[in-house]
Design a protein that fits this description.
This protein is of the alpha/beta class and about 450 residues long. The chain has helices at about 25-35, 60-70, 80-90, 105-115, 130-135, 165-175, 200-210, 220-230, 240-250, 275-290, 300-315, 315-335, 355, 365-380, 385-390, 415-430; strands spanning about 50, 95-100, 120-125, 140-145, 180-185, 215-220, 255-260, 270-275, 350, 380, 385, 405-410, 440-445, 455-460.
């Protein structure tokens, strides 16, 4: 008897709605021009469906909102801090925790403590703020992700894996004492939300132990990575996402966390570590940059919402629906012939702008151009993840990443499947007139992280 595939539904019901505004084509053209063709500079009031980021944009649960009413706003020793510390230790397993206002606050502190001038920091593909903090501390990032991660067409299920041969060559070239830690992201953002396998992580742990090198985990989307391990890695089919998350963390020495993603809050993050000496230094430094070590720039209510959100983030039902919505949109895009990064990742769909707009050179910003065109078509806001995001080397030359992508990042528990249909159909509309689209030139470039504030104009 043939088994009929059953539909799934979101594991929640909607209690409150925010009304959306749909601007006219003329209004969108003006808004885009005023924003310098940079979707980051659009006003949110001018956006219909906002896929700029999943950072701080997810919907909190009724439990989180009620938890916020229990905020203890004491300057020191807030009960919410101790609750957050307890939950994080239970779910992730690290010994010590320091709250920060968001993930980059943790990156800043960690980089200042561990990196000295001339150090090399290998990692499974760069992330913008992480690499900048490493460079500002005097270090240099080196990419050790497997080669298939740079190929959008390659369907290897764990494109976040580390190439251990690349790492061993770096250790041999520079010496282990020049490598303060390996920077490992779960669900690698710039590769298209691609996971790292548990097998690869175990092998990396064995190699780093041999050379006495730390592994620092960027775990902002660790639950999504755990879901892919559960679904695709042999031996984990019957394990819960919560169990897999804890095992992932057990092979690393500490982590930075932007809780604005997995942990379902609008603001917050933390640094967590197993080494007492690093913790002691970070506890001192957080007072300088963020706030006392029991609040780290956060209100007590935000820490309470984070503690509850961490628990909700590792629910199998939640993560199945979260990633399921991303997969739904990705499959819709593929059915229209739109070139996306494969396999479909955890937090969004990434369009291959080089294949979408092959007639536009990378120096004329095809991904930035495509993000602008999608907004002009429908009011859907996406973001560039290509040459603009990659920025410049310390010598001033542009980085030229192999991946020139537009990211459609799906906030958690916010949009419906009907919204996904609108997004896919808008992208198809732009795809049908792709040959008429021209590139852009940059007319303003800030010193750091230019993708946030750069301005462009269309090539006439």
């Amino acid at each position: 008897m043939k088994t009929i595939k059953r539909s799934w539904a979101e594991p929640y019901k909607i209690k409150m709605v925010e009304l959306l505004k749909m601007n006219s084509s003329a209004q969108r053209k003006k808004a885009m021009k005023d924003a310098g063709y940079n979707t980051f500079l659009l006003k949110s009031d001018d956006v219909y469906i906002d896929l700029l980021t999943d950072s701080g944009t997810s919907a909190m649960s009724d439990h989180q909102w009620s938890g916020m009413m229990m905020g203890d706003e004491a300057y020191a020793g807030s009960r919410n801090f101790y609750n957050l510390e307890r939950v994080a230790k239970e779910v992730y397993g690290y010994k010590y925790l320091i709250p920060t206002h968001q993930g980059r606050g943790a990156e800043n502190i960690l980089s200042k403590i561990l990196i000295k001038k001339g150090d090399i920091i290998p990692g499974n593909m760069y992330f913008t703020t992480t690499r900048l903090h490493q460079e500002l501390a005097g270090g240099k990032f080196e990419d050790i992700i497997i080669d298939s991660a740079h190929d959008p067409e390659n369907e290897f299920p764990f494109k976040g894996n580390v190439d251990l041969n690349k790492l061993e060559k770096l250790i041999k070239k520079h010496g282990a004492d020049k490598i303060p830690y390996i920077s490992i992201a779960t669900s690698v953002n710039m590769a298209g939300g691609q996971p790292i396998s548990m097998k690869n992580l175990k092998e990396l742990r064995a190699l780093t132990k041999k050379h006495n090198i730390l592994i620092i985990h960027d775990m902002t989307r660790v639950a999504e990575n755990a879901f892919f391990i559960q679904q695709k890695e042999k031996g984990y089919e019957m394990r819960s996402v919560k169990e897999i998350v804890k095992e992932i963390c057990s092979y690393t020495d500490g982590a930075t966390m932007s809780a604005k993603k997995d942990a379902l809050v609008n603001i917050g993050g933390f640094l967590t570590i197993n080494d007492w000496n690093i913790y002691e230094e970070a506890r001192n430094m957080v007072v300088v940059y963020e706030g006392l070590h029991t609040y780290g720039g956060l209100a007590g209510r935000d820490m309470e919402a984070m503690a509850i959100g961490i628990g909700e983030s590792v629910s199998d039902d939640h993560i199945r629906a979260r990633v399921g919505q991303v997969i739904y949109l990705g499959e819709k895009m593929l059915s229209y012939g739109i070139p996306i990064v494969k396999p479909i990742g955890g937090h969004g769909i990434f369009i291959d702008a080089k294949k979408f707009l092959p007639h536009i050179s990378q120096d004329n910003f095809p991904a930035q151009t495509l993000a602008a065109e999608i907004y002009l078509d429908s009011g859907v806001r996406t973001m560039e993840r290509g040459i603009v995001s990659a920025g410049r080397k310390t010598n001033g030359e542009n980085y030229y990443p192999k991946l020139e992508l537009v990211r459609f990042t799906i906030p958690r528990r916010v949009y419906t499947q009907a919204h996904m249909d609108v997004i896919a159909e808008s992208t198809r509309s732009v795809f049908e007139r792709k040959n008429k689209i021209k590139g852009m030139q940059m007319i303003y470039e800030p010193k750091y992280l230019r993708f946030f504030q750069a301005r462009f104009e269309k090539i006439k």
